[in-house]
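New to this. Look over this protein:
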Amino acid sequence: MAARCGLCGKGTAFGQNIRHKSTGRWERKASRTKRKFRPNLQHHFVFREGRKVRMRLCTRCLRTELRAAV
């Protein structure tokens, strides 16, 4: 199953880890390794079109969804 929010479509983003040691000039360039930024997904029941549906939502969407329900 893909790590993707069911409401906004937020998914995995890619980036790099950068070592703090040896940062500075070009001769001492810090090493970098690939990494993934995964969204914080939670399973939650949401009312969609009058029905209760279980969805995987990111915490941002979950917060706005709960705020809209109140």
Q: What stands out?
A: The chain has one helix and four strands.
